[in-house]
Amino acid sequence: MEFSLSNRLQAVADLVCGDYLIDVGTDHAMLPIYLVKNKIVKNAIASDINKAPLTKAEINIKINHLDGSIKTVLTPGLKGLEKHPVTDISIAGLGGLNIIEILEEADFVKRQNIHLILQPMQHIAELRKYLYDNGYEIEKEVFASEESKIYQIMSVTYSGKFEEYCDKELVLGKYSIENKKQNPELFNMFCDKFIYYYNDKIKGLKIGGKDTKLDEKLLSELMNEKV
User: Fold this and answer.
1) Alpha-carbon distance 160 to 110, whole Å?
2) Contacts from 172-177 at CB under 8 Å and sequence distance 24+?
3) How many Cβ atoms are within 10 Å of 130's Cβ, its own excluded?
4) pLDDT of residue 108
5) Which DSSP helix (H) or strand (E) runs through 138?
6) pLDDT recorded at residue 113
């Protein structure tokens, strides 16, 4: 059975650089199957907090005859997975606050200097702030678009260094700002996503009679970053 990954999952797959992956909140094991079949990783774990996705994952793994290379684990986040010789961990399609909770409960990702591939669906600024404040380095950021939606995927390792940042860097990402001319179309789409959000937020604040100066400043900075 052949698997064709979505643009979003393909962008995640392209950032994997080791030979043992844990895919947290797995999407029917599609990412691990693709990586093992294409000899990008040797082994993988597809984990999820719910049994139903794992049941579907197990079916897909068996269809592709990869039972010996991919295991499924029913667990919240990364709990109990520190014993495996993991090199890469992907957490894609979850909210940024959920990803923070998972990392908070998995100190082994710091001790073993594991490569993280993170793709938050919401609260991207909060996730980025957490990473900067807790010694993680965002080495690279890439974009993926599908069905008129734009996603940002982060390549992260633990360095123990703490970075300074401003609000626009939390929203858009330092790497993405510095390299925006590499993919201006997707960068502008990403900017527009937050320009729309802050425009809407400011309108709501004004209706409620609240101060909008900081949000208007950030909105102006985001608009000026467009290529």
Assistant:
1) 8
2) 172/222, 172/225, 173/128, 173/138, 173/141, 174/138, 175/138, 175/139, 175/140, 175/141, 176/141, 176/143, 176/152, 177/225
3) 18
4) 95
5) strand 136-146
6) 84
Q: How far apart are CA 28 and CA 181, in angstroms?
A: 35
**146: three-class secondary structure by DSSP:** strand
- Amino acid symbol at 84: H
Residues of the chain falling short of pLDDT 50: none
Using only C-alpha atoms, the chain has a radius of gyration, in whole angstroms, of: 19
Residues shown for the chain = 227
Give 167's contacts (C-beta < 8 A, 6+ positions apart).
Answer: 125, 214, 218, 221
Q: Under the phi-then-psi rule, with left for phi > 0, alpha for psi from -120 to 50, and beta for the rest, what region is 91? A: beta
Tokens of 73: 């684990």
